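pasting for ref
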Amino acid sequence: MVIPRTRAGAVAGTLVILPHGITPSLRNTGLRLSSATLAATPAATRRHPLDCLFFSGLRLARRALCRRSVSSPFDQFAKDVLDLLLSAHGRLETEVEAPALKSQRADVMFDPDPSHNAARRALGLLGVMTDRCCFFDPFHEAPDVAEVRSCLRKILNHQHARALGHRPAAEVSWLLCGGRPDSALGAMPFAPSTGWPRGFYDLGAALPLSIVVLSELPETADTLALRLMGAGLTLRRAISDLQQTPPGAVRDALVRRVVELHHDREVRDPHAPEYEDELMRSLPFVEELERRCRTEGAHLALVRYVERSLGRVTTEAERDALRHGLMRRGDAMLDEVFALSPAALDAWLIRQPS
């Protein structure tokens, strides 16, 4: 896979994506600024007024967000990977309703923009899978027979409703499975997909549903985007491969989302296997990025506090001085800044080495 160096989040078409949760405390987990930018801060304490400065606004924003409760943070992570990699190359929607006696929703629906075909196909196998309008439903654990049948019913209902309304419909539903769904593969007439690598199974041309067993995919650059949505050893190796990918806006956004996945305590499945948590902690480049994100998050918060106290915008030299002070002194500098009056703070900034 070639990770494009385009601006992360640039959309050619329409993007409808459910936002992530906003982490409710600066303590330990850090401050999430957006889905593509993780900015976590050092542990906050009651004597630091960062919570009251930022979280009154964040709480209001959170009430305005409508977020679907997902079964696993890893399933949400898979949706985020699809968003980051595909949203610039066509129309991407989440929670697409499929009319039925009981309404169903597809996690992701993608309709490719033909003008972005070359860039999209540079994503490797994921680019080939999105040559046509399609559904994606990620499963961190292996889906059972009932879940697979539900997904088949969902795509058929969607196609029927779109045909009645003379609207284009998704042509295939891809089930991205972190575990191998042996029960479904055995109970239903799935067969290895012709023209696709190992790990792809379908029900034939008449039924528009395919299973992708992510752990069975060849470990190549072409499968990296898909393997990032896997589980266990598959995910670990994919993250290691991502580390070797040349830096770029999309690649960096994916790496940040890996860190967010590690810190997403609010929606973490309490029954998630312990090895998944250990997996995230064991990656040196994730830990390094966490440290950088915490420092940058604290710096952003401190700059805003100083600007509000002084009633003016800080200069670049002042912002650099604050960053270097945080790196050298950490919480001790925060305590000092928060104890100063606006006039004393202005004088203090002048004395700081750049």
